[in-house]
């Protein structure tokens, strides 16, 4: 399965959550699926909007991988078959950052608004988060 043209191990995921759900104020999901071809992250079929399967239909990219921590399986929408990740090349990781996380950014914005609300305050908080990330990464701590 590693030679499958529907799987591109070099393409990173599109982000930390469902692209379409994150773009709306009321979007949410149960589980995430990542397109094995282009990296699009969408919500599962148990989620209200089912963006992963919609992406598969509209893009012609039928193979997804679970984007849940600790899960290593793929699913092919065209054949309705699941298979373990060890059968294919590992996909490129997402370069996750506290400073990119929508929830963290929202929290930082709220925190800055409670203070002076100056841009410098938000920049200082982002800078602190980058130092925390470096600390976590250097010590191999879970995020």
How would you characterize the overall build of this protein?
- The chain has helices spanning 19-22, 51-59, 102-114, 119-138; strands spanning 32-35, 41-43, 63-66, 73-76, 81-84.
- The chain has 143 residues and is α+β, with helices and mostly antiparallel strands.
- Helices cover 32% and strands 13% of the residues.
- The chain folds into two domains: 19-87, Herpes Virus-1, CATH 3.30.40; 98-138.
- A hairpin with a 6-residue loop joins strand 3 (63-66) and strand 4.
- The protein starts with 18 loop residues before the first helix and ends in a 5-residue tail after the last helix.
- It is globular and about 50 Å long.
- A five-stranded antiparallel sheet has the order 2-1-3-4-5.
Q: How would the blueprint of this fold be written?
A:
Elements: H1 19-22, E1 32-35, E2 41-43, H2 51-59, E3 63-66, E4 73-76, E5 81-84, H3 102-114, H4 119-138
Antiparallel strand pairs: 1-2, 1-3, 3-4, 4-5
Helix pairs in contact: 3-4
